[in-house]
Protein backbone atom coordinates (compact mmCIF):
# COMPACT_ATOMS: atom_id res chain seq x y z
CA UNK A 1 0.00 0.00 0.00
CA UNK A 2 1.27 3.47 -0.86
CA UNK A 3 1.89 5.92 1.97
CA UNK A 4 0.23 8.66 -0.09
CA UNK A 5 -2.43 7.49 -2.53
CA UNK A 6 -4.10 10.06 -4.77
CA UNK A 7 -6.69 8.94 -7.34
CA UNK A 8 -8.60 11.19 -9.67
CA UNK A 9 -7.90 14.37 -7.67
CA UNK A 10 -9.49 17.55 -8.97
CA UNK A 11 -9.00 20.94 -7.32
CA UNK A 12 -10.87 23.95 -8.64
CA UNK A 13 -10.99 27.61 -7.73
CA UNK A 14 -14.04 29.72 -8.56
CA UNK A 15 -12.86 32.90 -10.29
CA UNK A 16 -15.12 35.51 -11.89
CA UNK A 17 -17.97 33.00 -11.91
CA UNK A 18 -15.90 30.33 -13.68
CA UNK A 19 -14.50 27.11 -12.15
CA UNK A 20 -10.78 26.96 -12.84
CA UNK A 21 -9.44 23.43 -12.48
CA UNK A 22 -5.88 23.91 -11.24
CA UNK A 23 -5.53 20.14 -10.72
CA UNK A 24 -7.54 17.92 -13.04
CA UNK A 25 -8.01 14.16 -12.57
CA UNK A 26 -4.55 13.52 -11.16
CA UNK A 27 -3.33 10.14 -9.89
CA UNK A 28 -0.14 10.04 -7.82
CA UNK A 29 1.31 7.58 -5.33
CA UNK A 30 4.27 7.88 -2.97
CA UNK A 31 5.51 4.73 -1.24
CA UNK A 32 7.10 4.61 2.24
CA UNK A 33 10.71 5.78 1.96
CA UNK A 34 10.27 6.72 -1.70
CA UNK A 35 11.38 10.08 -3.18
CA UNK A 36 8.99 11.21 -5.90
CA UNK A 37 9.39 14.33 -8.02
CA UNK A 38 6.60 16.47 -9.43
CA UNK A 39 7.67 18.69 -12.31
CA UNK A 40 6.10 21.25 -14.61
CA UNK A 41 5.99 24.94 -15.48
CA UNK A 42 4.68 27.57 -13.05
CA UNK A 43 0.90 27.41 -12.82
CA UNK A 44 0.59 23.75 -13.83
CA UNK A 45 -0.99 22.79 -10.49
CA UNK A 46 2.00 21.36 -8.58
CA UNK A 47 1.72 23.59 -5.52
CA UNK A 48 -2.08 23.34 -5.47
CA UNK A 49 -1.70 19.56 -5.31
CA UNK A 50 0.73 19.92 -2.35
CA UNK A 51 -1.70 22.21 -0.54
CA UNK A 52 -4.58 19.80 -1.21
CA UNK A 53 -2.58 16.97 0.38
CA UNK A 54 -1.63 19.07 3.41
CA UNK A 55 -5.20 20.44 3.60
CA UNK A 56 -3.99 24.03 3.53
CA UNK A 57 -6.17 25.32 0.70
CA UNK A 58 -8.68 28.11 1.37
CA UNK A 59 -12.16 26.90 2.35
CA UNK A 60 -13.71 28.14 -0.89
CA UNK A 61 -11.56 25.78 -2.93
CA UNK A 62 -13.36 22.71 -4.25
CA UNK A 63 -11.38 19.47 -3.69
CA UNK A 64 -12.75 16.19 -5.01
CA UNK A 65 -11.10 12.81 -5.44
CA UNK A 66 -11.90 9.12 -5.68
CA UNK A 67 -9.13 8.64 -3.13
CA UNK A 68 -6.95 11.01 -1.12
CA UNK A 69 -5.39 8.76 1.48
CA UNK A 70 -2.35 9.13 3.72
CA UNK A 71 -1.25 5.89 5.39
CA UNK A 72 -4.82 4.57 5.27
CA UNK A 73 -6.33 7.84 6.58
CA UNK A 74 -8.92 9.48 4.35
CA UNK A 75 -7.77 13.12 4.14
CA UNK A 76 -11.04 14.23 2.55
CA UNK A 77 -13.18 13.34 5.55
CA UNK A 78 -10.86 14.49 8.37
CA UNK A 79 -12.18 17.16 10.72
CA UNK A 80 -10.03 20.22 11.41
CA UNK A 81 -8.72 18.90 14.74
CA UNK A 82 -7.55 15.63 13.20
CA UNK A 83 -5.99 17.51 10.30
CA UNK A 84 -3.99 19.66 12.70
CA UNK A 85 -2.66 16.71 14.62
CA UNK A 86 -1.70 14.87 11.41
CA UNK A 87 -0.10 17.88 9.74
CA UNK A 88 3.51 18.35 10.77
CA UNK A 89 3.52 15.32 13.07
CA UNK A 90 3.24 12.80 10.21
CA UNK A 91 2.99 14.91 7.08
CA UNK A 92 4.98 18.11 6.79
CA UNK A 93 5.87 20.65 4.13
CA UNK A 94 8.87 22.79 3.23
CA UNK A 95 7.12 25.83 1.84
CA UNK A 96 8.04 27.54 -1.39
CA UNK A 97 10.08 30.66 -0.59
CA UNK A 98 12.03 29.89 2.60
CA UNK A 99 12.94 33.60 2.70
CA UNK A 100 9.41 34.43 3.85
CA UNK A 101 8.48 31.21 5.61
CA UNK A 102 9.60 32.32 9.09
CA UNK A 103 8.09 34.83 11.49
CA UNK A 104 10.58 37.73 11.45
CA UNK A 105 10.09 38.58 15.14
CA UNK A 106 10.74 35.08 16.55
CA UNK A 107 14.09 33.35 16.69
CA UNK A 108 14.61 30.36 14.43
CA UNK A 109 14.99 28.05 17.45
CA UNK A 110 11.76 29.31 19.04
CA UNK A 111 9.83 28.68 15.84
CA UNK A 112 11.06 25.09 15.56
CA UNK A 113 10.42 24.58 19.30
CA UNK A 114 6.87 25.88 18.90
CA UNK A 115 6.11 23.22 16.28
CA UNK A 116 7.42 20.49 18.61
CA UNK A 117 5.56 21.83 21.64
CA UNK A 118 2.27 22.06 19.70
CA UNK A 119 2.40 18.38 18.77
CA UNK A 120 4.18 17.03 21.82
CA UNK A 121 2.95 19.21 24.72
CA UNK A 122 4.23 16.79 27.37
CA UNK A 123 7.86 17.21 26.24
CA UNK A 124 9.98 19.19 28.71
CA UNK A 125 11.49 22.53 27.66
CA UNK A 126 14.93 21.04 27.99
CA UNK A 127 14.09 18.05 25.76
CA UNK A 128 12.64 20.40 23.15
CA UNK A 129 15.72 22.63 23.31
CA UNK A 130 17.95 19.58 22.80
CA UNK A 131 15.81 18.43 19.87
CA UNK A 132 16.07 21.87 18.23
CA UNK A 133 19.87 21.74 18.59
CA UNK A 134 19.94 18.24 17.11
CA UNK A 135 17.72 19.26 14.17
CA UNK A 136 19.87 22.29 13.38
CA UNK A 137 23.03 20.16 13.49
CA UNK A 138 21.34 17.61 11.22
CA UNK A 139 20.86 20.25 8.52
CA UNK A 140 24.36 21.69 8.92
CA UNK A 141 23.61 24.74 11.11
CA UNK A 142 25.49 25.30 14.35
CA UNK A 143 23.05 24.86 17.28
CA UNK A 144 24.50 28.10 18.65
CA UNK A 145 22.53 29.92 15.94
CA UNK A 146 19.16 28.81 17.41
CA UNK A 147 18.84 32.21 19.08
CA UNK A 148 19.25 34.11 15.81
CA UNK A 149 16.39 35.82 14.00
CA UNK A 150 15.55 34.96 10.39
CA UNK A 151 17.16 38.13 9.05
CA UNK A 152 20.49 36.95 10.49
CA UNK A 153 20.41 33.83 8.28
CA UNK A 154 21.50 33.69 4.64
CA UNK A 155 19.08 32.32 2.03
CA UNK A 156 20.70 28.88 2.12
CA UNK A 157 20.60 28.78 5.93
CA UNK A 158 16.92 29.74 5.94
CA UNK A 159 16.25 26.90 3.51
CA UNK A 160 18.16 24.49 5.77
CA UNK A 161 16.25 25.80 8.80
CA UNK A 162 12.91 25.30 7.03
CA UNK A 163 13.95 21.69 6.33
CA UNK A 164 14.83 21.29 10.04
CA UNK A 165 11.40 22.69 10.89
CA UNK A 166 9.70 20.18 8.58
CA UNK A 167 11.58 17.32 10.31
CA UNK A 168 10.80 18.58 13.82
CA UNK A 169 8.14 15.98 14.66
CA UNK A 170 9.62 12.98 12.81
CA UNK A 171 7.15 12.96 9.88
CA UNK A 172 6.73 10.00 7.54
CA UNK A 173 6.26 12.19 4.47
CA UNK A 174 7.80 15.58 3.67
CA UNK A 175 6.57 17.66 0.75
CA UNK A 176 9.24 20.10 -0.46
CA UNK A 177 7.81 22.80 -2.72
CA UNK A 178 10.54 24.30 -4.92
CA UNK A 179 13.21 23.72 -2.24
CA UNK A 180 16.04 25.34 -4.19
CA UNK A 181 14.36 28.24 -5.97
CA UNK A 182 16.10 31.60 -5.42
CA UNK A 183 19.34 29.95 -4.25
CA UNK A 184 22.63 30.29 -6.08
CA UNK A 185 23.95 27.20 -7.87
CA UNK A 186 26.47 26.19 -5.18
CA UNK A 187 23.94 26.52 -2.36
CA UNK A 188 21.39 24.69 -4.50
CA UNK A 189 23.78 21.74 -4.85
CA UNK A 190 24.37 21.67 -1.08
CA UNK A 191 20.63 21.69 -0.35
CA UNK A 192 20.04 18.89 -2.87
CA UNK A 193 22.77 16.81 -1.20
CA UNK A 194 21.23 17.52 2.19
CA UNK A 195 17.72 16.50 1.10
CA UNK A 196 18.90 13.24 -0.46
CA UNK A 197 21.07 12.41 2.57
CA UNK A 198 18.22 13.07 5.02
CA UNK A 199 15.78 11.03 2.92
CA UNK A 200 18.22 8.09 2.93
CA UNK A 201 19.29 8.35 6.57
CA UNK A 202 15.82 8.87 8.00
CA UNK A 203 13.98 6.60 5.55
CA UNK A 204 11.69 9.51 4.72
CA UNK A 205 9.17 9.53 1.92
CA UNK A 206 9.39 12.80 0.02
CA UNK A 207 7.38 14.54 -2.67
CA UNK A 208 9.67 17.12 -4.24
CA UNK A 209 8.06 19.77 -6.40
CA UNK A 210 10.15 21.70 -8.90
CA UNK A 211 9.95 23.33 -12.32
CA UNK A 212 13.60 22.28 -12.74
CA UNK A 213 13.95 18.71 -14.01
CA UNK A 214 17.68 18.70 -13.29
CA UNK A 215 16.89 19.15 -9.59
CA UNK A 216 14.56 16.16 -9.69
CA UNK A 217 17.02 14.04 -11.64
CA UNK A 218 19.46 14.42 -8.71
CA UNK A 219 16.99 13.41 -6.06
CA UNK A 220 14.14 11.24 -7.15
CA UNK A 221 13.34 7.58 -7.55
CA UNK A 222 10.28 8.40 -9.63
CA UNK A 223 9.03 11.55 -11.35
CA UNK A 224 5.65 12.77 -12.59
CA UNK A 225 5.33 15.67 -15.02
CA UNK A 226 2.28 17.94 -14.96
CA UNK A 227 1.00 20.17 -17.72
CA UNK A 228 -2.02 22.46 -17.40
CA UNK A 229 -3.36 20.67 -14.33
CA UNK A 230 -2.84 17.10 -15.57
CA UNK A 231 -0.12 14.47 -15.21
CA UNK A 232 1.19 13.87 -18.73
CA UNK A 233 4.03 11.48 -17.90
CA UNK A 234 5.20 9.46 -14.93
CA UNK A 235 7.94 6.91 -14.54
CA UNK A 236 11.29 5.93 -13.05
CA UNK A 237 13.55 8.99 -12.85
CA UNK A 238 16.50 6.98 -14.17
CA UNK A 239 14.64 6.23 -17.41
CA UNK A 240 13.13 9.68 -17.87
CA UNK A 241 16.35 11.60 -17.38
CA UNK A 242 18.62 9.42 -19.49
CA UNK A 243 17.00 9.86 -22.88
CA UNK A 244 13.87 7.83 -22.11
CA UNK A 245 11.35 10.66 -21.71
CA UNK A 246 8.35 9.73 -23.86
CA UNK A 247 6.06 12.77 -23.83
CA UNK A 248 6.94 15.67 -26.19
CA UNK A 249 6.36 18.16 -23.34
CA UNK A 250 8.79 16.35 -21.00
CA UNK A 251 11.39 16.26 -23.78
CA UNK A 252 10.99 19.99 -24.41
CA UNK A 253 11.19 20.67 -20.68
CA UNK A 254 14.45 18.71 -20.50
CA UNK A 255 15.81 20.71 -23.45
CA UNK A 256 15.37 23.87 -21.35
CA UNK A 257 18.29 22.81 -19.11
CA UNK A 258 21.89 21.80 -19.79
CA UNK A 259 22.24 18.01 -19.65
CA UNK A 260 25.28 16.59 -17.85
CA UNK A 261 27.50 14.81 -20.38
CA UNK A 262 25.54 16.07 -23.38
CA UNK A 263 28.45 18.13 -24.71
CA UNK A 264 27.84 21.45 -26.48
CA UNK A 265 24.10 21.04 -27.00
CA UNK A 266 22.07 24.23 -27.28
CA UNK A 267 19.37 25.01 -24.73
CA UNK A 268 15.94 25.75 -26.14
CA UNK A 269 12.77 27.13 -24.58
CA UNK A 270 9.22 26.01 -25.28
CA UNK A 271 7.41 28.46 -27.56
CA UNK A 272 4.06 29.87 -26.43
CA UNK A 273 2.56 29.51 -22.98
CA UNK A 274 0.29 27.14 -21.07
CA UNK A 275 -3.45 27.36 -21.85
CA UNK A 276 -5.97 29.37 -19.84
CA UNK A 277 -7.35 26.84 -17.33
CA UNK A 278 -10.62 28.78 -17.13
CA UNK A 279 -11.18 27.70 -20.73
CA UNK A 280 -8.92 24.69 -21.38
CA UNK A 281 -8.58 23.59 -25.00
CA UNK A 282 -10.13 20.45 -26.46
CA UNK A 283 -7.90 17.46 -27.06
CA UNK A 284 -4.33 17.37 -25.79
CA UNK A 285 -3.70 20.48 -23.70
CA UNK A 286 -0.18 20.75 -25.10
CA UNK A 287 -1.22 20.69 -28.76
CA UNK A 288 -0.82 24.43 -29.42
CA UNK A 289 2.87 24.19 -28.46
CA UNK A 290 3.67 20.71 -29.72
CA UNK A 291 5.99 20.42 -32.72
CA UNK A 292 4.75 16.90 -33.56
CA UNK A 293 0.98 17.29 -33.15
CA UNK A 294 -1.36 15.37 -35.42
CA UNK A 295 -4.92 16.37 -36.43
CA UNK A 296 -6.50 14.20 -33.73
CA UNK A 297 -4.44 15.98 -31.02
CA UNK A 298 -6.67 19.09 -31.20
CA UNK A 299 -9.88 17.17 -30.62
CA UNK A 300 -9.17 13.94 -28.71
CA UNK A 301 -7.71 13.96 -25.23
CA UNK A 302 -4.93 11.34 -25.00
CA UNK A 303 -5.19 8.83 -22.16
CA UNK A 304 -2.21 7.79 -20.04
CA UNK A 305 -0.73 4.66 -21.64
CA UNK A 306 2.15 2.36 -20.86
CA UNK A 307 5.36 3.40 -22.57
CA UNK A 308 6.55 0.31 -24.47
CA UNK A 309 9.73 -1.23 -23.09
CA UNK A 310 9.82 0.90 -19.92
CA UNK A 311 8.36 -0.66 -16.77
CA UNK A 312 6.16 1.55 -14.59
CA UNK A 313 6.35 4.32 -17.16
CA UNK A 314 3.19 5.97 -18.54
CA UNK A 315 2.56 8.98 -20.76
CA UNK A 316 -0.47 10.71 -22.31
CA UNK A 317 0.30 11.23 -26.00
CA UNK A 318 -1.36 9.86 -29.13
CA UNK A 319 2.05 9.01 -30.54
CA UNK A 320 2.72 6.49 -27.77
CA UNK A 321 1.57 2.88 -28.14
CA UNK A 322 0.48 0.46 -25.46
CA UNK A 323 -2.83 -0.37 -23.94
CA UNK A 324 -5.03 2.53 -22.85
CA UNK A 325 -5.31 2.66 -19.05
FE1 LIG B 1 1.85 16.45 -29.07
FE2 LIG B 1 -0.38 15.21 -29.84
FE3 LIG B 1 1.26 14.01 -28.17
FE4 LIG B 1 -0.18 16.09 -27.37
S1 LIG B 1 -0.97 14.10 -28.02
S2 LIG B 1 1.94 15.75 -26.95
S3 LIG B 1 -0.18 17.35 -29.19
S4 LIG B 1 1.72 14.59 -30.27
From the structure above, extract its key features:
ABC_transporter-like_CS; 13 strands; ABC transporter ATP-binding protein; 9 helices; Rossmann fold; alpha/beta; 325 residues; transport; AAA+_ATPase; globular; binds iron/sulfur cluster; ATP binding; 29% helix; five-stranded antiparallel sheet
Could you walk me through the main structural features you see in this protein, from its secondary elements to its overall organization?
It is a single chain. This protein is of the alpha/beta class and 325 residues long. It folds into 2 domains: 4-90 and 172-186 and 200-316, P-loop containing nucleotide triphosphate hydrolases (Rossmann fold, 3-Layer(aba) Sandwich); 99-168, no CATH class. Helix content is 29%, strand content 22%. It has helices at 46-53, 80-86, 108-119, 125-138, 155-166, 185-202, 213-219, 237-244, 248-255, and strands at 4-15, 18-30, 35-39, 62-64, 67-70, 73-74, 91-94, 173-177, 205-210, 222-227, 230-236, 305-306, 314-315. The chain has an 8-stranded mixed beta sheet with strand order 7-8-9-3-10-11-13-12, sandwiched between helices. Strands 1, 2, 4, 5 and 6 form a 5-stranded antiparallel beta sheet that branches. Strand 12 (305-306) and strand 13 (314-315) form a beta hairpin. Helix 3 (108-119) crosses helix 4 and helix 4 (125-138) packs across helix 5. It is globular, with a radius of gyration of 20 Å. The structure holds iron/sulfur cluster. Iron/sulfur cluster (SF4) binds at residues 248, 284, 286-287, 290, 292-294, 297, 302, 317-319. Iron/sulfur cluster (SF4) binds next to loops. Keywords: ATP-binding, Cell membrane, Membrane, Nucleotide-binding, Transport. GO terms for molecular function: ATP binding. It comes from Mycolicibacterium komossense.
Amino acid sequence: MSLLDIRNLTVSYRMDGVDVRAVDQVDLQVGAGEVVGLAGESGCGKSTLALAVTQLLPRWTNVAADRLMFDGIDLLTLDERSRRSLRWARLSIVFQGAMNAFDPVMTIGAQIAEAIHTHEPSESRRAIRDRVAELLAQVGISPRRAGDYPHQFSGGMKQRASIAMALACHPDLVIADEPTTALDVMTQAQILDLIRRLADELGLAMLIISHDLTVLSELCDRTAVMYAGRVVESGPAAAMFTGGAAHPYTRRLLDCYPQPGAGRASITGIPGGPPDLAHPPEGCRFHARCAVMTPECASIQPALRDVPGSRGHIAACHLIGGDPR
